[in-house]
Fold this protein.
Amino acid sequence: MNVIADFCVVPIGVGVSLSAYVAAAYQELEAAGLHPQLHANGTNVEGEYEQVFAAFKRCLERMHEMGAPRVSCTIKLGTRSDRSQTMDEKVVSVEEKLGPRS
Amino acid sequence: MNVIADFCVVPIGVGVSLSAYVAAAYQELEAAGLHPQLHANGTNVEGEYEQVFAAFKRCLERMHEMGAPRVSCTIKLGTRSDRSQTMDEKVVSVEEKLGPRS
Amino acid sequence: MNVIADFCVVPIGVGVSLSAYVAAAYQELEAAGLHPQLHANGTNVEGEYEQVFAAFKRCLERMHEMGAPRVSCTIKLGTRSDRSQTMDEKVVSVEEKLGPRS
Amino acid sequence: MNVIADFCVVPIGVGVSLSAYVAAAYQELEAAGLHPQLHANGTNVEGEYEQVFAAFKRCLERMHEMGAPRVSCTIKLGTRSDRSQTMDEKVVSVEEKLGPRS
């Protein structure tokens, strides 16, 4: 089962600057072959369910290894059985509806 | 790694009534031994990461088996390395701060 | 427009214990007349859109007033134009599908 | 209070193709001056709290006007009182931690 997912991790108890943690999670997602796409409120990935959630676990473990005693995490995901669709195809599908942009 | 998670599933392309799907997901979570707690915007569970996410996968597969061509899903989760905490302890911890309720 | 929503607030930069913050947010939601229902991963409310989101803003302001330099927040919400539905009706609708529970 | 938010809307009861709805929501967010950034799992915006949530309400109303009897919506948002930060600055802050990319 293929999934497209958004992963957002918030380490708690490590102060106010979180970018080093988000970067470390990104590196784990990249090392797992999930083609991560960083955006302003999370990181998008695509892959097989087991592969994706094994990588998310590794990200959470990494947060704790980096010193976070507590981690809050939000995941949005979509699956389809009617057809396959990539992250880029999802975006293009909306952009086509928006029409030519100046 | 123990997790406390909120699981919310929205099958797409099966009409407007979703309660039979939410009930089926609940049954999968219960069968997996995750002590599901149904609430107005999702279902809370607790357990080991692998156990929880294997059950979530089974829920998604069940949605497709029931006829949903597409599924949207939102997961919130928390992990702690400083101490163990159950779902009930999380709620009690806030209720203690709220003080006696009329 | 009536909404049923789940509100989850994570103050950042205030240490690892968040229950006093969640309790303060609950009090704001209650003061706003939103009938908050605390659960293990958030707080559910129902009400008119403007009333709900004015209360959520007050919660965020309260987190900052309590000392949080940064706040992360997750909101899930549902609206219907086909019929009205309360939080309790949503839960009962699923419980009916589950059948008699031991 | 300035917010950076991710808005994800799932119209229910309108079939399996949602891109026309996501495009319509994007247009509402753009018309509201929120500089929307479309990504594979939602649309990011930034602005004043009232401005952002008035636009989200308009998006939800638009979904119902387009025929959706029910709408599910997920919002992630962040606020800071320690300093101002744009969406682009959030991404750059992580990219700097990642170092030079091939």
Remarks:
- The interface with chain D takes residues 10, 12-13, 15-16, 18, 69-70, 72, 74 of chain B (CB under 8 Å).
- Residues 2 and 47 of chain B are 5 Å apart (CA to CA).
